[in-house]
TrEMBL record:
Annotated protein name in UniProt: 4Fe-4S ferredoxin, iron-sulfur binding protein
Molecular function as annotated in GO: 4 iron, 4 sulfur cluster binding; metal ion binding; oxidoreductase activity
Pfam families: Fer4_11, Fer4_6
4Fe-4S ferredoxin-type domain boundaries: 3-32, 41-74, 76-105
Organism annotation: Methanocella paludicola (strain DSM 17711 / JCM 13418 / NBRC 101707 / SANAE)
InterPro entries xrefs: 4Fe4S_Fe-S-bd, 4Fe4S_Fe_S_CS, ET_IronSulfur_Cluster-Binding
Keyword field: 4Fe-4S, Iron, Iron-sulfur, Metal-binding
Length: 147
């Protein structure tokens, strides 16, 4: 069963602790610019979290000329192999929300890898605005938020 990260903007306080946890896990520094997820100001005074959706049919994977992007069919996680990635940015252009970013210190792209199934962002969210749920439960949550 695949799991996804779901963000409830109604609960989010905009503290950006998810961003600091992400940058520390991936780069051992607290730097919003290095976070693989972003919290941005929403249109209604709320906050919106932007991160890889680990799509069912990832366009980034189809666009990668090096075959560096793989989808684990068991977990649903879409990952980038930094040893195969050539840094051409085709994945950024193919991604509907332009998520992949150049990995610091390497000529390779990076994006959320769900922390291997134990997302740091969820652990630090004191508002409980971020949840790690099955794709089906995620769709229910999103439908209830958007009503």
């Amino acid at each position: 069963m695949t799991e996804v990260i779901v963000h409830d903007p109604g609960l989010c306080t905009g503290c950006r602790q998810c961003m600091t946890a992400c940058s520390f896990r991936n780069y051992k520094t607290y730097n919003y610019d290095l976070s693989l997820c972003k919290v941005i100001d929403g249109p209604h005074g709320d906050f919106v979290r932007v991160h890889c959706q680990h799509c069912r049919d990832p366009m980034c994977m189809a666009a990668c000329p090096a075959g560096a992007i793989k989808k684990d069919e068991a977990t649903g996680f879409v990952t980038i192999d930094k040893m195969l990635c050539i840094g051409c940015k085709a994945c950024v252009w193919a991604c509907p929300i332009s998520i992949p970013q150049m990995q610091r210190g390497l000529k390779a792209m990076a994006k959320c890898d769900m922390c291997g199934g134990d997302p740091e962002c969820i652990k630090v969210c004191s508002a409980k605005a971020i949840k790690f749920v099955t794709r089906e439960e995620g769709m229910k949550i999103i439908r209830s938020i958007t009503k």
